[in-house]
């Protein structure tokens, strides 16, 4: 549904977006994750036809944003970081106005406005002036205007920025509920947001894509089973020595004590899954195996590793 190929945007001598490529399948929710200044907003603006790229191309629903901008834009709903509301219009007036300029047929406008107000839970604010709305409602009305022409694709730039925790949960639920019917690209610098809302994540830093995968796979790919937590009932035996003798294990450290059971953090050579041999060794030595699980990096740790590493980030991500 969305194809982005080698997008580059230069502001004078400064390269804000540098050869970014990604695809988004129909009905998918893609998280576009990066720190402030990474190039997210610039990419969103190119993707929505608000700004031309210096190089590269973007297609939405098969339409090239530069060659067929009208057809492409008809299929896109865009929620910029600051929703473009008119303070003196009521919510209903504003949505009617947006429906008109987005080309919704006159006979369908009232029904469309009612439907999106329902969907985004703003119907109770229909007669409130946009300028008098709370931040949470402003964001929802922003989402309503993006949805008004029932676009295939929704591009949401930092949709939960500035919301309180309750509003954040509601907005994420709303976005999740829109996936499937709509293809969604959501930009954010909030790591748990992608894990909770998106099926796939593109991580961008300094204008470049440093990783792309599902939140689960990204964690697994970086860490694999390189670290496992093993808890054993170690009465009368040197559990640490048993674990250290397992082929591939590089270090064993005590990390917890629960009564008679001791928890160990077992590191292994990269790419080696030692879980089976650890289990066999523990049981073979007559120790009780209480728990065995891989310890994975949080998305936060991955992000830090990808963006602060000395090695070129792509190598880290693809290793
Ligand atoms: N019009 C512009 N002229 C010059 N530089 C710009 C312009 N717009 C953005 N930049 C620079 O390009 C880089 C990427 O900006 P962009 O807004 O795309 O990042 P972002 O990832 O969306 O960050 P944020 O979350 O802070 O909005 C930044 O260093 C920014 O200062």
Automatic annotation (TrEMBL):
The record ties this protein, via SUPFAM superfamilies, to: P-loop containing nucleoside triphosphate hydrolases
Superkingdom of this entry's organism? Bacteria
Q: Which GO terms describe its molecular function?
A: ATP binding; ATP hydrolysis activity
The catalytic activity of this protein is classed by the Enzyme Commission as: 3.6.3.-
List each copy of the ABC transporter domain by range: 2-231
Q: Does the keyword Transcription regulation apply?
A: no
**Family matches, as InterPro entries:** AAA+_ATPase (IPR003593), ABC_transporter-like_ATP-bd (IPR003439), P-loop_NTPase (IPR027417)
What Gene3D superfamilies does UniProt report for this protein, alphabetically? P-loop containing nucleotide triphosphate hydrolases
| Record key words, sorted | ATP-binding, Hydrolase, Nucleotide-binding, Transport
Record SMART domains: AAA (SM00382)
Q: What is stated as this protein's family in its record?
A: Belongs to the ABC transporter superfamily.
User: What is the name of this protein?
Assistant: Putative ABC transporter ATP-binding protein YxlF
Q: Which organism is it from?
A: Luteitalea pratensis
Organism lineage: Bacteria, Pseudomonadati, Acidobacteriota, Vicinamibacteria, Vicinamibacterales
Encoding gene (name) = yxlF_1
């Amino acid at each position: 549904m969305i194809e982005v190929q080698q997008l580059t945007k230069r502001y004078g001598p400064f390269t804000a977006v540098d050869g970014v490529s990604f695809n988004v399948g129909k009905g998918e929710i893609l998280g576009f994750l990066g720190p402030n200044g990474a190039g997210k907003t610039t990419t969103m603006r190119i993707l929505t036809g608000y700004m031309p790229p210096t190089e590269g191309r973007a297609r939405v629903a098969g339409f090239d944003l530069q060659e067929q901008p009208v057809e492409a834009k008809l299929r896109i709903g865009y929620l910029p970081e600051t929703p473009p509301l008119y303070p003196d219009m009521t919510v209903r007036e504003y949505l009617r106005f947006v429906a008109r300029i987005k080309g919704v047929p006159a006979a369908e406008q009232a029904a469309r406005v009612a439907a999106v107000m329902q969907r985004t839970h703003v119907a109770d604010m229909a007669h409130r002036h946009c300028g008098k709305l709370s931040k949470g409602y402003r964001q929802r009305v922003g989402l309503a205007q993006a949805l008004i022409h029932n676009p295939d694709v929704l591009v949401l730039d930092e949709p939960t920025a500035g919301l309180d925790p309750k509003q954040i949960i509601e907005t994420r639920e709303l976005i999740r509920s829109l996936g499937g019917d709509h293809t969604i690209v959501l930009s954010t610098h909030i790591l748990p947001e992608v894990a909770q809302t998106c099926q796939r994540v593109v991580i961008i830093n300094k204008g470049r894509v440093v990783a792309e995968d599902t939140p689960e796979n990204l964690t697994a790919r970086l860490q694999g089973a390189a670290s496992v937590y093993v808890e054993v009932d170690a009465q009368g035996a040197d559990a640490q020595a048993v674990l250290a003798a397992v082929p591939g294990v590089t270090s064993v450290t005590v990390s917890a004590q629960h009564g008679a059971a001791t928890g160990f953090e077992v590191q292994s050579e990269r790419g080696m899954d030692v879980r089976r041999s650890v289990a066999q060794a523990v049981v073979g030595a007559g120790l009780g195996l209480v728990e065995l699980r891989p310890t994975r990096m949080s998305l936060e740790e991955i992000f830090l590793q990808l963006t602060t590493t000395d090695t070129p980030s792509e190598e880290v991500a693809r290793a």
